[in-house]
Design a protein that fits this description.
Shape: globular
CATH superfamily of the largest domain: Aldolase class I
CATH class of the largest domain: Alpha Beta
Distance between the termini: 50 Å
CATH topology of the largest domain: TIM Barrel
Radius of gyration: 19 Å
Mean pLDDT: 92
Strand content: 5-15%
Number of domains: 2
Helix content: 25-40%
Low-confidence stretches: none
Largest sheet: 3 strands, antiparallel
Strand order of the largest sheet: 5-6-7
Number of strands: 7
Order of helices and strands: HEHEHHEHEHEEEH
Length: about 250
Amino acid sequence: MDKDFFAIIEYTAQKGIQPVIFTDGATMMRDLAFIKRVKDLGASVVPKCDSLYDNEYQNWVVGDETGRYFYERNEVIELLIDEGFNKIEMDGTTRLGFDMVISRGNLSEVADTLTFCRQNNLWIVFSFYLPAGRSGSKEFEKYKWLVPSEEEKTQLRRTIEKIDRNCFGFVHPVLNNFVTMPCVERLQIYGDGRVSPCPGNETCIGHIQTDSIGDLSKKILVDFPGHNPECFEGHCLYRPRIKEDN
């Protein structure tokens, strides 16, 4: 959609920054030549994943009434795997993964999705709704039924921890945001140039066209010291803290 898409990706990579493309995975990513070019530029890809197994739920989330999206997206995932995006990189990482927002519509898929990702070398984060953005708006009130209860969240964390520990020997902290990994999101730049501390805090602290990244970073630490990386524990500052098991 952006005529400068590849120029942006190339420029980002040249600056030593890892480009990560979040995509619906059912439009340009179905073009093999497009995928190959993305791979050559060193970018990682995150296809939209609300469900790997339930076509009705996935199509409902994206508002697709044709019923094609689910199957086209899965086709793209297969293409990305065939092209080696999930190959183990020299530093042990992978360039393919999912960011899955957990709701009561896909809670039952967590175990199978996690297992699929571990077996195929995809990274996976399971995130809960933020009290900001679309899920923090008044329009989201009619979808509140989708938000898992604290009991359901606790059970999900236990399931993830058990599968990773017992099946894959992967021991990691269990956090209140992405569950499988600490929060790494900091300094969010909106399309109109406004800057906020992160996706969970929409307070405008400046503008990218008038303020330097360095100055914006300093302002975040002054106004919101909890974002200081020297004392940040990895838990999302804007989601409820999890209750530790006794």
